[in-house]
Design goal:
The longest helix has 19 residues. The relative contact order is 0.11. The strands form two sheets. This protein has a seven-stranded mixed sheet, sandwiched between helices. A four-stranded mixed sheet has the order 5-7-9-10. With about 270 residues, the protein is α/β, with parallel strands linked by helices.
Length: about 270
């Protein structure tokens, strides 16, 4: 079983524990503020994960005791000209898109502040596990910008258009209990337990067919903006991907033989 750790730049690491990967944000001095270099490292790490067929689930975590991620590095932004800001925009999009487009199920383990781009990183994951210290929100309009890491599109898909509009227009911060009640996070756990619970959930997910997991995620994500008829065709394509796979044959055999499956991953 693979137990390894790889660094990407100064502030991002990927830890592997068998089929579960942990994408670690470790820019402690800046509460994981997303600078250009930090975003480049996230994008690079996500590209490596996306190309690793052995990863069945990924957990996005933070080493900072008081923050998941506070969003864009506004100190760096303050030094950039308009031309420089525009030139760096594709690199910023690559960081958030890298998380969003990971092909395996993803879980954000959130504690402390997850604001602006930080909450957008969490929204880019399939599931969000939070502890009671979590504070989430998209406050971008309060500093004269808009959510630019996917927030205007991901939040309404999670909580509905009107709720998303209220949260984005008001720029308000939402504490853990209300965030859970509103569906801004999926699971609320005990203090300091977000990482452990997210990794445990990832382990349960990773016990399932890698072919099935990736096909199911692809169907869920692709069908988001479609009408029912088109979405069902997406599901049909996913079904055909898995129906004639080695994983399907192994899953059926293991069920009938009353044993744990040994997934071939093809």
């Amino acid at each position: 079983m693979d137990h390894s750790e790889q660094a990407f730049g100064e502030w991002v690491r990927v830890r592997r524990d068998g089929p579960v990967a942990e994408l670690v944000m470790d820019r402690k001095g800046a509460m994981n503020a997303v600078s250009t270099a930090f975003g480049d490292a996230l994008a690079e790490a996500c590209a490596a994960l996306a190309g690793d067929d052995g990863v069945r689930a990924t957990v996005l975590t933070s080493t900072h005791e008081r923050a998941f991620c506070v969003g864009a590095d506004l100190k760096e932004r303050n030094t950039l000209s308009d031309a420089e800001l525009g030139a760096r925009r594709p690199r910023s999009r690559a960081a958030y898109g890298g998380v969003l487009e990971l092909p395996m199920p993803t879980i954000a383990a959130v504690h402390g502040f997850a604001l602006g781009g930080g909450y957008e990183l969490a929204l880019s994951c399939d599931l969000i596990v939070a502890d009671p210290t979590a504070v989430v929100g998209l406050p971008e309009v309060s500093v004269g910008v808009v959510p630019g890491g996917g927030g205007t599109q991901l939040l309404p898909r999670r909580v509905g258009a009107a709720r998303a509009a209220e949260l984005i227009f008001s720029a308000r911060r939402v504490e853990a209990a209300e965030a859970h009640a509103l569906g801004l996070v999926d699971q609320l756990v005990g203090p300091g337990e977000d990482r452990a619970e997210a990794l445990a959930l990832a382990g349960r997910i990773a016990a399932n067919s890698p072919v099935g997991l990736r096909a199911a995620k692809r169907a869920l994500r692709t069908g988001w903006g479609m009408d029912l008829r088109a979405g069902l065709e997406v599901e049909e394509a996913a079904w055909r991907t898995v129906a004639f796979s080695g994983d399907r044959a192994e899953g059926v055999a293991a069920f009938n033989e009353k044993r744990a499956p040994r997934w071939p991953g093809v």
